[in-house]
Amino acid sequence: MENDKLKEATDISGEAIEPDELEVENISVLQNDPAELQKLLDEQTKRAENSYDRLLRLQADFENFRRRTRQEKDEFYKYASEQLVVALLPVLDNFDLALAAEGDANEGFKAGVQMIYRQLLDVLAAEGVAPIQAVDEPFDPAKHEAVAQDGSGRHPANTVVEELRRGYCLRDKVIRPSMVKVAVAL
Q1: Residues 6 and 70 in one domain
Q2: Which of 73, 75, 170, 172 is least enclosed by beta carbons within 10 angstroms?
Q3: Domain carrying residue 7
Q4: Residue range 132-166, pLDDT digits in tens
């Protein structure tokens, strides 16, 4: 009868579990010996406790891994722009020097600011930032933000005639579209 119950057992999916011959022999031996049955029960209980302890340790390890990963990710995002900021600090220093310059030498002041502007553009270009070409280009809504229209008829329709604010790309991604004036057909 006990063997019939084993043969009728099913797994989670509902399929029948076929007991191996050793299990069937063990059950028939165990039915006659309660000490052996208790010993087998103790062994299985110990195995289950060991498995449970391993599971708890694995869960704790996984939680620690998730926490560490989250902290590393937060740390990365917090300081991801560090190199860019360090590269921009000399530009900031030069602006301080230009603004601290005394005298009526407007041309010297203008030349200093132009030099700083070029230095800033070079730093941004080294980081992959490039201005978006707009004037005389066909209007592209992915790169341009139309804020005005020109109906004069001097330019082909759907052409950018004036750039009101420069747009920039970071590598291949538009990070700020250009604000433009677009020619329209009459």
Answers
A1: yes
A2: 172
A3: 2-75
A4: 999 999 999 999 999 999 888 888 889 999 999 88
- How far apart CA 40 and CA 57 sit, in angstroms, is 26
**The total number of structural domains that make up the chain:** 3
| pTM over cut 0.90 | no
